[in-house]
TrEMBL record, chain A:
One of the Pfam families matching this protein, by short name: ABC2_membrane_6
Keywords: Membrane, Transmembrane, Transmembrane helix
Transmembrane feature ranges: 26-49, 118-136, 148-175, 202-219, 231-252
The keyword S-adenosyl-L-methionine is annotated on this UniProt entry: no
Protein name (database record): ABC transporter permease
UniProtKB/TrEMBL annotation, chain B:
UniProt key word Membrane: no
Signal recorded as keyword: no
PROSITE patterns membership: ABC_TRANSPORTER_1 (PS00211), ABC_TRANSPORTER_2 (PS50893)
Protein name according to UniProt: Methionine ABC transporter ATP-binding protein
MF terms in GO: ATP binding; ATP hydrolysis activity
InterPro entries reported in the protein's UniProt record: AAA+_ATPase (IPR003593), ABC_transporter-like_ATP-bd (IPR003439), ABC_transporter-like_CS (IPR017871), ABC_transporter_ATP-binding (IPR050763), P-loop_NTPase (IPR027417)
PANTHER family in the record: ABC TRANSPORTER ATP-BINDING PROTEIN, ABC-TRANSPORT PROTEIN, ATP-BINDING COMPONENT
SMART domains: AAA
Keywords attached to this entry: ATP-binding, Nucleotide-binding, Transport
UniProtKB/TrEMBL annotation, chain C:
PANTHER family: INTEGRAL MEMBRANE PROTEIN (PTHR36832:SF2), SLR1174 PROTEIN-RELATED (PTHR36832)
Keyword Transmembrane: yes
Matching InterPro entries: ABC-2_transporter-like
Species of provenance: Paenibacillus abyssi
Keyword RNA-binding on entry: no
Record keywords, A-Z: Membrane, Transmembrane, Transmembrane helix
Residues passing through the membrane, by range: 21-42, 54-74, 114-133, 139-161, 173-192, 227-249
Pfam annotation, one family: ABC2_membrane_6
Full protein name: ABC transporter permease
Length: 264, 323, 258
């Protein structure tokens, strides 16, 4: 385990050095990512400024949901960037080169094309700090919420990673996964940015039982922010995250054995 | 060293559904199209051998190599590399193997060549001293010095190929798989790569399996040749036996000054008529039995020759001859 | 006619991926559904101005469908790629003006997306949402005109974004920044009059409202055709900008020697 972590660090370092060969692009893309994220949050903020709340969820509470999810996603995409881009490897046959190395494939894939999601990390932290600050001052939550939130963010990152890996693994069967990712990663995550009580029942259940992003932020926050649930939702969320991760890893192993490379 | 028994690989592809809901139906359907890439081949390679593995495009060469290297899992049959199965013990087998795909680099594209070696050494758990001596040795053999600090993307194709060969040899594997190591190189670069490979085989004693489209590679390097076509081994033996089996089929196109009579019979049985168009005859002969000069002398008996065109044996044709 | 040939080629090329695109529509429809849900949550016990709950639902749903005509075009009209491969030098030398050439191709893309993305999503919303449908054919006509002008503005925008790739090599990010701004300033999710004053002012002085806000309000019968004069002016200005940009590109490519 320690050995693989050291290997991972080494590969990430190499990946960063590669990226720094194109320094301008690196800073340019980071800046652009910040702008995109700010604008995205602004849309939600504008609505809440105008109307006060959505189904009883205030600005701070919505901001909390949004920030927790943004941070989880940023961690997942930073730590495992090219898992999301497996399609490129499958279609182009680039997985061959990774399979020739004496390290686990997933580790090799996770360390390729490392991207520090600095924009998301900064923005997520800022919004989270502001929202939690307000809520602690208003007595809506106590200081214990801080370590709990960190646990939730990490468990959310694991969950998003697991969902991403599971979707990517489908690529071993269906090759083209972009459309699928659009549903399981993009649409599902966008849905989880908002308080789920606004959705009709079928969609709520889909986000709990089908693509369980609800466990990444909404359900835990029902305990941390709104005290509508008991403490057990936190360990349950972590358990769900690791359960999905286990399933994803098992599927991944089967998928790898089905890898077809490209003809030639 | 390498033992392959009844190796088989079938590719299943989903049949695409057309029409409005095609995408969804393709996702759900179980309607496979099965294509056999490798259909039950067996062979064994002993330590120190230099084996050429040839065949036309799509014959199953790369698929075989990929199964030997643990990239693809065979549908049936077994592969054993130094007594281990490459798909069950992939990571252990990669330590005994050096693999080079000529069309792709295994190096880090944007980093200096040296950095790639550092990373690879770390992956194989080589300590620094071992790595440096090894690198010095390879650097001398492959003349890496001139470009070791250059990013891979800036290397010429010949340099990149040398750098990749060194990468494949860095962890001191016993076996080398080379998939088209001379592809796209000019004559000089090809010659130098061949020299390196010869040394690697003779002096370092590595077992090498080489696939190529270049007959010169085979003739100059390999003592043993295996030919694959349509997923089956058509020939496995020494280069001399291969030559005697197919000879050197050559096509000669002769254009005569005046109309030649339609000739059902050529002046010699060693010449075969392929086609006749006006004043032009296309003839095939085997240069093992009949030298080019001799063939022309025979053909001159039919009339005054104005123009001659000779075609060297085509690789695809040679392989077809084996069947 | 060159226009038709190029447009038809792009349309036909897309047809091959039709089935994948239809799967993609599920995701797109889902996104729209999320936005509709937000407004339903807000409008539960509040009046929503001149729109009302059904009005705002129709507003957001129609915007989501029209994304495929007025916003989601080929990133930089594919120029980023042709810069990377060097194809751009060849394209600039063709007897047809680069802008005209790429624009024709993109109209084929838009036609395809109208048939295989806009219409399916629109039809879905028609059945599952209380979607407002205009009663007069004139409204349909002016909505189509407004969407066409919106599409033209977006083509020009993407042309300019793509042209920048000649200097920055990567234009993907600009595409997304433009998209993000357009989400906020075009009234895609929030009608412009409900934006905070500064944002509303910025929006009104830009071309963004003509991408979503104006077409959709025409569709809902809240605006008449005179609103399109502004769109036509912006189209003219953008055409001029694109032609000027091509001049700069020519010079840049000549300096680089192709």
């Amino acid at each position: 385990m320690i050995k693989w972590l050291r290997m991972y660090r080494l590969l990430i370092a190499a990946s960063i050095r590669s990226r720094m060969e194109y320094r301008f692009n690196f800073w340019f893309s980071t800046l652009m990512a910040v702008i995109i994220n700010v604008v995205e949050f602004l849309m939600l903020a504008v609505i809440l400024l105008k109307f006060g709340h959505i189904k009883g969820w205030t600005m701070e509470e919505c901001g909390y949901l949004y920030a927790v999810l943004t941070l989880s996603k940023a961690i997942y995409r930073t730590a495992a960037s090219d898992v999301h881009h497996l399609e490129k490897y499958l279609v182009g046959g680039d997985l061959d080169a990774l399979l020739l190395r004496p390290i686990p494939i997933l580790l090799a894939l996770m360390s390729q094309n490392f991207q520090l999601k600095a924009g998301e990390l900064i923005q997520g932290t800022a919004i989270l700090t502001i929202c939690m600050g307000v809520m602690i001052r208003q007595g809506q939550m106590t200081w214990t919420a801080i370590p709990l939130t960190m646990v939730v963010i990490m468990s959310g990152a694991v969950l998003l990673f697991a969902i991403g890996l599971l979707t990517a693994t489908a690529g071993f069967w269906i090759l083209r996964i972009e459309e699928l990712q659009n549903i399981t990663e993009d649409a599902a995550r966008t849905a989880a940015q908002y308080p789920m009580s606004i959705y009709p029942n079928w969609l709520q259940w889909l986000l709990i039982g089908g693509i369980p992003v609800a466990f990444a932020n909404y359900l835990p926050s029902l305990y941390i922010v709104r005290q509508q649930m008991d403490w057990w939702i936190i360990p349950l969320s972590c358990a769900v995250a690791f359960l999905v991760l286990g399933a994803a890893l098992a599927a991944w192993r089967v998928g790898i054995s089905r890898y077809q490379s490209t003809g030639s | 060293m390498i033992q392959v028994t009844d190796l088989q690989k079938q590719f299943k592809t989903l049949r695409k559904k057309e029409g409005a809901a095609g995408g969804l139906r393709t996702l759900l359907s179980r309607d496979y199209q099965v294509k056999e890439a490798v259909g039950g081949i067996s062979f064994a390679i002993e330590p120190g051998e230099f084996v050429g593995y040839i065949g036309p495009n799509g014959a199953g060469k790369s698929t075989t190599i990929k199964m030997l290297a643990g990239i693809l899992h065979p549908t049936s049959g077994t592969v054993s590399i130094c007594g281990m199965s490459p798909h069950r013990e992939r990571r252990r087998v990669t330590r005994r193997l050096g693999v080079l795909f000529g069309q792709r680099t295994g190096l880090w594209w944007d980093l200096p060549v040296k950095d790639s070696y550092d990373i690879l050494a770390a992956m194989y758990g080589q300590d620094n001293r071992v790595k440096e001596t090894r690198l010095a040795q390879l650097s001398e053999l492959l003349a890496l010095g001139e470009f070791i600090d250059t990013p891979v993307r800036k290397l010429s194709l010949g340099q990149r190929m040398r750098a990749d060969i060194a990468a494949a040899l860095l962890h001191d594997p016993d076996i080398l798989f080379l998939d088209e190591p001379t592809i796209g190189l000019d004559m000089i670069a090809k010659r130098s790569i061949r020299n390196f490979l010869k040394q690697i085989n003779c002096e370092l004693g590595k077992t090498i399996l080489l696939t190529t489209h270049d007959m010169d590679d085979i003739e100059q390097l390999c003592k043993r040749v295996m030919v694959i076509n349509h997923g089956k081994l058509g020939f496995d033996g020494s280069i001399d036996r291969l030559r005697s089996r197919i000879g050197l089929p050559t096509k000669i196109r002769v254009c005569y000054a005046s109309q030649v009579p339609p000739c059902g019979s050529l002046p010699d049985t060693r010449l075969q008529l392929i086609s006749q168009e006006g004043r032009t005859l296309t003839i095939s002969c085997n240069r093992e039995e009949l030298s080019a000069m001799e063939a022309l002398r025979l053909l001159e008996q039919l009339g005054i020759i104005e123009d001659v065109h000779m075609e060297e044996p085509d690789f695809e044709d040679i392989v077809h001859q084996i069947y | 006619m060159l226009f038709l040939v190029l447009a038809r080629k792009t349309y036909a090329r897309n047809l091959q991926y039709r089935s994948a695109h239809l799967v993609h529509n599920i995701a797109s429809a889902l996104f729209g559904f999320i936005y509709v849900s937000i407004w339903m949550g807000i409008g539960e016990n509040r009046p929503l101005g001149e729109y009302g709950l059904t009005g705002i639902v129709s507003y957001v749903a129609f915007n989501q469908a029209s994304l495929w005509v007025a916003a989601f075009l080929t990133n930089g009209l594919g120029m980023e790629q042709s810069v990377r491969t060097g194809q751009i030098a060849l394209d600039l030398m063709r007897p047809v003006h680069l802008f005209y050439h790429l624009m024709c191709k993109e109209w084929g893309q838009i036609a395809y997306q109208f048939v295989y993305k806009f219409l399916p999503i629109y039809a879905l919303y028609f059945f599952v949402l209380p979607l407002h449908v205009p009663s007069s054919w004139q409204t349909f006509f002016w909505t189509a005109a407004a969407l066409s002008l919106a599409a033209y503005i977006t083509i020009c925008l993407n042309y300019l974004i793509g042209a920048l790739a000649l200097w920055t090599t990567e234009s993907r990010w600009l595409y997304w920044v433009n998209y993000a701004f357009s989400m906020l300033l075009s009234g895609f999710l929030i009608p412009i009059e409900w934006l905070p004053k500064t944002l509303a002012d910025i929006s009104r002085s830009s071309f963004y409202p003509y991408l979503h806000y104006i077409p959709t309000r025409i569709y809902l019968g809240m605006e008449d055709r005179s609103a399109l004069i502004g769109a036509v002016c912006w189209c003219a200005a953008f055409t001029f900008l694109c032609l000027a940009a091509t001049g700069f590109m020519r010079r840049k490519v000549e300096v680089q020697g192709g």
